[in-house]
Amino acid sequence: MYASLKSITTWPPSRENARRFTLLLCTCSALGSLAIYSLSTRLPLSLLLLNMAALACVLAQYCLSRKSIKFEPQELADRLLKVQENERHRLSRELHDDIGQLLTAAKLQSEWLKRRMPEELQDQCSTLCDTLEETLTKVRDVSAILNPRQLTSLGLEASLRAHLLKTLGNTPVHWSLECHSRLTGIPEEMAVAAFRITQEAVTNILRHAEAKNLLVRLQRQPQGLTLLISDDGLGFAPATDPGREGQRGMAGMSERIDQLGGTLRVTSEPGKGTQIEALFPWAPRALERASTNKVMH
Fold first, then answer.
1. Is 130 left (phi over 0), alpha (psi -120 to 50) or beta?
2. What is the pTM of this model?
């Protein structure tokens, strides 16, 4: 009994309790007004106060509804990003642990068969072994892209450098990674967001931009971590609403930035390359620590 009364008297009330209380007041107000009308007497002060309380509850309920509607899209975006990251991690584990182990077993078995095959079948066995080795390498690469485990062990800068080396190593793109400040102590969610945004930008460059030069720059600032990605590719016309206009990569970048309360600016024109500038603000507890780190020139 005490617990139920305590739940009713908490402030601000839950939406369910607010609806119940509003319904009770409106019912009492309506019955009282009907009784006064049937008796043809003057409106007492108590009934007037009851009507005002009912009106105040209706206004409070309206404000609570507006607040819940206002924050629903952001909460939904946060939830979708968390689900997406969890799904990436699950797929990465399955690729690495299950499919990777099966391919490794097949590779070992093919090497065992190669040693026992007659001479005329050695070339086919060698081709099979090479194909399995290449497939195993691809699976490991995809697993690393889905779940960059090295972020925890190596840090953001080393992880980005390893990704750029692996992704752009056999392409004509000349790339540069610049870090003008120490990137130690970066929060995990911020490091993951910066890595994913860079990953998406590099993928777009390889698929669409036909760029020759790429610059990725990270810098610790008093207001937060800044990320600059600039290329000299074909460029494009940035959409006002990337999600609705089919630019899913840009929409994903915006969602990650919004989740951390940051800002994203995309500057691009057809034939003039693309520049992406992202700011990840420090969390309140990390702001003081971040401001004490000096920038390395």
1. alpha
2. 0.54
Q: Let me know: does 194 contact 227? Beta carbons within 8 Å.
A: yes
- Say which residue the tokens 């800002």 belong to: 263
Give the model confidence (pLDDT) of 116-144 as tens digits: 888 888 888 888 888 888 887 777 667 66
Q: What is the DSSP string of 264-288?
A: EEEEE-TTS-EEEEEEEEPPHHHHH
What tokens does 165 get?
Answer: 């080396």
Cβ proximity of 32 and 50 under 8 Å: yes
Query: Can you tell me the distance from the alpha carbon of 252 to that of 240, in angstroms, rounded to the nearest whole number?
Result: 14
5's tokens: 């009364």
CA gap 184, 176 in Å, rounded: 20
State the Rg of the chain over Cα: 30
In 3D space, the residue among 169, 130, 170, 164 whose CA is nearest the CA of residue 145 turns out to be 164
Q: What is the pLDDT of residues 204-219, one digit of tens each?
A: 888 888 899 999 999 9
